[in-house]
UniProtKB/TrEMBL annotation:
<feature type="domain" description="Palmitoyltransferase DHHC">
    <location>
        <begin position="129"/>
        <end position="242"/>
    </location>
</feature>
<keyword id="KW-0808">Transferase</keyword>
<keyword id="KW-0012">Acyltransferase</keyword>
<feature type="transmembrane region" description="Helical">
    <location>
        <begin position="172"/>
        <end position="194"/>
    </location>
</feature>
<keyword id="KW-0449">Lipoprotein</keyword>
<dbReference type="InterPro" id="IPR001594">
    <property type="entry name" value="Palmitoyltrfase_DHHC"/>
</dbReference>
<feature type="transmembrane region" description="Helical">
    <location>
        <begin position="43"/>
        <end position="63"/>
    </location>
</feature>
<keyword id="KW-0472">Membrane</keyword>
<keyword id="KW-0564">Palmitate</keyword>
<dbReference type="GO" id="GO:0019706">
    <property type="term" value="F:protein-cysteine S-palmitoyltransferase activity"/>
</dbReference>
<protein>
    <recommendedName>
        <fullName>Palmitoyltransferase</fullName>
        <ecNumber>2.3.1.225</ecNumber>
    </recommendedName>
</protein>
<dbReference type="GO" id="GO:0006612">
    <property type="term" value="P:protein targeting to membrane"/>
</dbReference>
<dbReference type="InterPro" id="IPR039859">
    <property type="entry name" value="PFA4/ZDH16/20/ERF2-like"/>
</dbReference>
<keyword id="KW-0812">Transmembrane</keyword>
<comment type="similarity">
    <text>Belongs to the DHHC palmitoyltransferase family. PFA5 subfamily.</text>
</comment>
<dbReference type="GO" id="GO:0005794">
    <property type="term" value="C:Golgi apparatus"/>
</dbReference>
<keyword id="KW-1133">Transmembrane helix</keyword>
Length: 340
């Protein structure tokens, strides 16, 4: 379990202690915030309305109204399966909203830095300070205007669930996408089995269900696949977007001489899927978010710890720093030879 950060004093100029607060990286502009507030308050009615239509069109009109007349036992089984899948979809959706994206606990309120750990910093090497939450930002943390808190491993705002997704609820977001996809695949399978012989007199509701289910499966499937890959590789959507924009990011790390150095990350340090700076290995990345495999279907949130840079990445920074120091030393020798 990661320990709270402790103050560090070091001889070089890159002191880890932040001398002045920095402006928090608010993730929403005023117009975008208003738009997302509108989505947040109205998306629930849209989702509930669509689900109500599916219950009417699929369960009542097709399964009970048509299939039950010839296959009553099958109709009851279909309704039970659909009801279970639909119930789990609502459970995961509520888990997204109730658990939330996560926050920074009291263990980070000491405004201190672990002596040996590498951490994200500004270009001067100072720890990044959130003047809204009044504490240093742990690695991968961003202040969100949506929740007005610092969110660990903030990923994205999802208009389809009406909430911010972060480390605290991305597991439930994946579960919601998967359960939605499974539910709609089940709907299409039932329609193909029991409605294929109704063409050209197929129920109008069946046509609408085919279209809506097909589109939703593609959308939910792509979302689930994309974000599960991010989880596997240790990425977040926000980090990849930031790297793609070319935003400057810096790391303060302990060099071989016992002093700290500050290194600016290049675009490919983050924007390469198999080289995430925070990846701890595929299985560990999955376990950190999803928990043990037997808890994957359950709406149970895993503990949130401060992410640490992986050792291979820090070693790569040290090797890069070695080359910089060697080049500087060679240039100094050349200058001395010329002056001599």
């Amino acid at each position: 379990m990661p320990q709270p950060r402790q103050d560090v004093s070091c001889a070089d100029k890159y002191s880890t202690r932040a001398k002045k607060p920095e402006e928090p990286d608010k993730d929403l502009r005023p117009f975008a915030q208003k738009a997302r507030d509108w989505v947040r308050h109205h998306v629930y009615f849209v989702l509930v309305g669509l689900n109500a239509y599916f219950i009417y069109a699929f369960c009542y009109s097709i399964v009970w109204g048509r299939i039950s007349k010839k296959h009553k036992g099958a109709a009851i089984a279909i309704l039970c399966i659909y009801g279970t899948l639909n119930f789990m979809m609502y459970v995961y959706w509520l888990a997204i909203l109730l658990w939330g994206p996560g926050g920074i606990g009291s263990q980070y309120a000491s405004n201190s830095i672990d002596g040996d750990a590498a951490f994200q910093c500004n270009m001067q090497g100072y720890s990044i300070y959130c003047s809204y939450c009044k504490h240093l930002k742990p690695n991968r943390t961003h202040h969100s205007a949506f929740t007005d808190t610092c969110v660990p491993a903030m990923d994205h705002f999802c208009p389809w669930v009406g909430y911010l997704i972060g480390q605290g609820n991305i597991k439930f977001f994946l579960q919601f996408c998967w359960s939605t996809g499974f539910t709609l695949v089940f709907v299409i399978i039932v329609l193909l089995i029991y409605q294929h012989n109704q063409i050209p007199n197929i129920n109008n509701n069946a046509i609408v269900l085919y279209i809506l289910s097909g589109l939703a499966i593609l959308f939910a499937g792509s979302l689930a696949s994309q974000h599960f890959i991010y989880v596997v590789m240790g990425h977040t959507t926000l980090e990849l977007m930031s790297a793609k924009r070319g935003d400057s990011q810096y790391v303060n790390f302990l060099w071989r001489d016992g002093h700290r150095r500050v290194m600016q990350l290049n675009r490919m340090d983050i924007f390469v899927y198999d080289q995430s700076p925070f990846s701890q290995g595929i299985w560990n990345n999955i376990r950190e978010i999803m928990g043990p495999f037997y808890t994957w279907p359950l709406p149970i949130r895993e503990p949130i710890y401060e992410p640490q840079f992986n050792k291979a990445f820090i070693e790569k920074l040290r090797e890069r720093q070695d080359k910089i120091e060697e080049q500087a030393l060679n240039e100094l020798k050349d200058d001395c030879d010329i002056s001599g």
